[in-house]
Amino acid sequence: MDKGTIIRTVTLLVALTNQVLVLFGKSPLPISDVVLEQFLSTFFTIISSLIAWFGNNYVTKKGKDQKECLKQHGLSK
After folding, report:
1. Averaged confidence pLDDT in the chain
2. How many CA atoms lie less than 13 Å away from 23 in the CB half-sphere?
């Protein structure tokens, strides 16, 4: 996996972990206002999920083969 894929995956895992903690009433952020905490948690989850979803991650064998084909034809970095 390339560096971007790893960063997007880790960001998504952190966001999902944060969302689960908020769901169970744990406070991962040191903010006392519940509404602000829920907003920030949801915002962080949505943004990181969109980045991970729309990022072109070549994780599967088929995806890696596609990436290699693109590189061979000069269509990718």
Report:
1. 81
2. 8
- Residue type at 13 in one-letter notation: L
Which residues make Cβ contacts (< 8 Å) with residue 71, sequence separation at least 6?
A: 77
Q: Residue 60 corresponds to which amino acid?
A: T
Q: Cβ distance 52 to 9 under 8 Å?
A: yes
Model confidence, pTM: 0.45
What 3-state DSSP class applies to 2? coil
Enter the tokens of residue 22: 């908020």
In the predicted model, is pLDDT for residue 29 greater than 60? no
Q: How far apart are CA 11 and CA 17, in angstroms?
A: 10
